[in-house]
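tool_log.txt
---
The assistant was asked to compare two proteins side by side. It first ran the structure predictor on the initial sequence, then on the second. Raw inputs and outputs are pasted verbatim so the downstream comparison step can read them without reformatting.
(1)
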Amino acid sequence: MATPSSQSITMTAEPAAIMDVIADFAAYPEWAGAVKSVDVTVPGEDGRAQQVKFSMDAGLLKDTYELAYQWDADGLGVSWTLVSGQLQKSQQGSYKLRTTPKGTEVTYTLAVDLSVPMIGVLRRKAERVILDTALKELKKRVEAG
């Protein structure tokens, strides 16, 4: 299993508003640049998806994969694992939210194992870019209202 990478950003929004954006998978193609299509394959009883299939195009990396989600009961986090993928052997990730005096701190953690070999230095650089881009896109979407 790949070593997880984490990155955090503070958003000027309540945790519930941030989690609403994270849970609105159908809207991802509107704001998450690499996500081309999304299909909720297993809806959740509470309106939060249990499994979601993504089609991603990030230039050199194109993949179709499905993730299973676990939503924290306190509304301050979500984690996921890979169900199936073309390029990925495994994926584990999470968003954890924490209220601070300046807003809500969002920490994104991701560990991805690819089916194709990738030099460690390149993989870590790609992970940093993915984390940074995902958090900035999420912040922009959340703060736009």
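(2)
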Amino acid sequence: MCYDPRHPRVRPDHNERTVSLRMERQRRLFAADRPLRLAAMLEEVVLDRPIGGSDVMRGQLEHVLQLVEHENIEVRVLPTAIGSHEALVGPFTVLDFPEAQSIAYVEQVNGAIYVQDQDQVNGYTRTVNRLREVALSPEQTVDIIHSRLTT
């Protein structure tokens, strides 16, 4: 399989489908009627990792600040000072639905899996709740992002 540095976790034959799904999710996030709710946690280190150079990083940080102005979007930073935590094993998403059971989406080196076993999903939900307890508040997150833009 060919490694694509732009999408290292997406197989080349899945690129189109993945982009399409992400574009639809983005459309739903900003829909006037019943927009999706997004709560995201970012490790502080990603605010400083120079992916794409300083102009790209500045644009990304400014974009996050624009996103958090929407009432359905919450972003929190996990400070590096907290040290080790349960999410260090890799990225995951808990998807909650009003009329269906929650599922967890877990990224792996060669793809991703959807976890539907509710005991396992509950474990991911507990991890999110514990991380939320040690994460910066939304207001502190905005401040720390602004601090990166002024240096």
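---
observation on (2): Residues 1-5 have pLDDT under 50 and may be disordered. Residues 42 and 77 are 5 Å apart (CA to CA).
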